[in-house]
């Protein structure tokens, strides 16, 4: 990316920029040797038993027998006979009186446009 031109001020002359001194490359001392870590020897793993012995459960105690319960016979329910329903008399209503028309100004239809 090109640098933008530096604006100049009339009547002002700047001295030339001094040269930037070159910095010599830094010389690092050689890296010290990494000490070798000796290999760790683990003891042999103990042998896993081939089969785990099955747990021995004590025998289940016998469940006592529940005695049979005999229920007495149900007493017979006497049959109830209902008397016949009395006839309901038919009621004839008089005709409805005509409802007088009440004027409601607030319910007037909107004026036609």
From TrEMBL:
Give the protein name, as stated in the record: Uncharacterized protein
Annotated organism of origin: Eleusine coracana subsp. coracana
The taxonomic lineage of its organism, from the top, reads:
Eukaryota, Viridiplantae, Streptophyta, Embryophyta, Tracheophyta
Q: Its encoding gene is what?
A: gb12227
